[in-house]
Amino acid sequence: MDAKNGCGLCKIAVENVSVVRNKETILKDVSFNLHCGKLTALIGVNGAGKTTLLRSILGEIQHEGEVFFEGFDGKRLSKITIGYVPQHLNFDTSSPVSVHDFLQASRTIRPVSFFKPKKNSYSINESLATAGASELANRTLGDLSGGELQRVMLAQALYPTPELLILDEPLSGVDCIGSEQFYDSIQNLRENYHISIVMVSHDLELVKQYADDVLLLNKEVLCFGSTSEVFASNAYKQTFQAGGDF
Amino acid sequence: MSFVYAMLEFIFPFDFIEYNFMKNAIIAVILITPLFGMLGTMAVNNKMAFFSDALGHSAFTGIALGVLLGVKNDLISMVAFGIFLALIITRVKASKVASADTIISVFSSTSVALGLVVLSFGGKFSSYSQYLIGDILSITTNELLLLFICLIVVTIIWGLIYNKLLLISINEDLAASRGIKTMRIENIFVVLVAVVVMLSIKWIGILLINSLLILPAAASRNISKNSRQYMFLSIFIALFCGLFGLIISFYTNTSAGATIVLLCSVFFFITYAFRNKK
Which positions in chain B have a beta carbon within 8 angstroms of at least one beta carbon in chain A? Predict the structure, then answer.
């Protein structure tokens, strides 16, 4: 991944996305644009449809409306690379899998247990360095702390180089130091790579500190704009200061 | 074949090697045990010990179906039924209508009972009881060729799906988000296990086959820190216990399969004492 590379992408547009499940409206006419090099935070009360929106962007669930990707020249791209960091990785912590094994398994078909190609090691070390996790390469996955594991998950999401990076509450249950290290890595990504980043977070202080734009959601878009605009809006005050279930 | 025999006589300069049945048994062990060591790593990772046990026990039904359908080579009916059962258990398990152990238990009990009923019809079960403990000394050169082909084919497929299986074993949703067809890969894996288990049952025995799949990997997992250590140690333990278990059984006049498995369990307890403590 070259520093300050152009991703070739102008915007990711979500237009009139609606999701209805069992006759219940989960999302209604959600529209917004995401731009390269910006971190957009997705906030809202529990059950607002944040994860459903992420899964619609990932193409994992059926929805009405469109999610499309437009290049600098205005042409629509049929497909972009999306990196995904889940909320929490449930796995058997006694499994003998090193961080290097885990990252190598998602980059090559050569079986991890027989080969350790140098070419892959270079790219793995690069992703780990970008995610601030260089020292973790030879650690066993099950021995990592919550914050360390999320930085490794960030490293796995960086290959192949994504145009859109989705972080689904990546730091729930992670301690303060772990959170800061993770956000430092995200800052580094945002400043040095033209990646659009969407992050669901319940930590409004961190959102205030790190996000460029904020989308306030409650089945529909209540407010979308720069962080300061959204935090000053009536919709934000009504949602969070009236004691919403957050 | 004479070249291979001469090699074995050179490597094992002991009196047991004078017998051709021992030479064949050693070749069989060299061909079978690495497969079990290899496949066992993922069977243990995916918590499939009970599944492979059910698969082994279903061999009786495979033989019974062969008898009913008039298939002369019971190996064909066993492998076919093993693949069928493995795929159907995986499909039902994925539908999450009941817990995995309940589903496996239902299929296992049904297939064992069905097999025993058919085979014991008219009091003829005693002729099939050899399958319970197996007899590796009875293996023929043609069967060795079949095992050799199996080793090559399974190793190639294993190499192609290993990384995907590893990601699925860590987290299925994450694997799916990276574009892996999880169901397809799991199906290929259970078919590989079914083929290897069914091909080996005649020589290892229904009662012990699952132990040979699970114990070397479980022993290796106790002390491994990464995938390479895990795989190579598992293969080494399976091969070492296979060869020495066979030789010990020759001198002690005991069941080869049982002696091999007993050695594997000794390895498990030793590695358990030195396991990676969290």
Answer: 41, 45, 47, 158-160, 162-164, 166-167, 169-171, 173-174, 177-178, 221, 224-232, 276, 278
Domain boundaries, given as residue ranges, for chain B: 2-273
Percentage of chain B modeled with pLDDT above 90: 49
Best mutation target among B42, B154, B177, B220 (most A Cβ atoms within 10 Å) is B177
Do A139 and A196 lie in one domain? The reply is no
What's the mean per-residue pLDDT of chain B? Answer: 89
pLDDT value, residue A60:
78
Q: Are the CB atoms for B185 and B161 separated by under 8 Å?
A: yes
pLDDT at site B277: 63
Same domain? For A71 and A112 the reply is: no
The tens digit of pLDDT for each residue in B170-211 reads 988 888 888 888 999 999 999 999 999 999 988 888 888 889
Of A58, A84, A96, the CB nearest to B226: A96
In total, the C-beta contacts within 8 angstroms joining chain A to chain B are: 89
> Is B231's pLDDT higher than 90?
yes
Q: Which domain holds residue A214?
A: 1-81+163-246
Compute the Cα dihedral for A130, A84, B163, B57 and give only its sign.
positive
Regarding whether A241 and A169 lie in a shared domain, the answer is yes
Which range, A74-88, A183-197, A214-228, B134-148, has the best average confidence (pLDDT)? A214-228
Residue A64's pLDDT is 92
Taking 50 as the threshold, does the pLDDT of residue A246 lie above it? no
Assess whether A175 and A240 both reside in one domain. Answer: yes
CATH of the domain at A34: 3.40.50.300
Which residues of chain B neighbour A110 with C-beta distances below 8 Å? Answer: 159, 163
Q: What is the pLDDT of residues A181-194, one digit of tens each?
A: 788 888 888 877 77
Q: Give yes or no: residues A124 and A232 share one domain.
A: no
Q: CATH 3.20.20.80: does it fit domain B2-273?
A: no
Of the residues A110, A144, A160, the one at which a domain ends? A160
B223 CA: distance to closest CA in chain A (Å): 9
Specify burial of residue B12 (Cβ count, 10 A radius: 0-12, 13-18, 19+). middle
- In this prediction, residue B79 carries a pLDDT of 92
Structure tokens at A62: 């059926």
Instruction: Let me know whether A63 and A8 are in one domain.
Output: yes
> One-letter amino acid identity for B161?
I
DSSP E strands in A22-107: the ranges are: 24-35, 39-43, 64-71, 76-77, 82-85
Q: Compute the distance between CA of residue A7 and CA of residue A9 in angstroms, rounded to an integer.
A: 5
- If asked whether residues A67 and A183 sit together in one domain, one would say yes
Do residues A176 and A133 share a domain?
Answer: no
Number of domains in chain A: 2
CA nearest B168: which of B178, B153, B159?
B178
Among candidate residues B192, B42, B227, the one with its CA nearest the CA of residue A115: B227
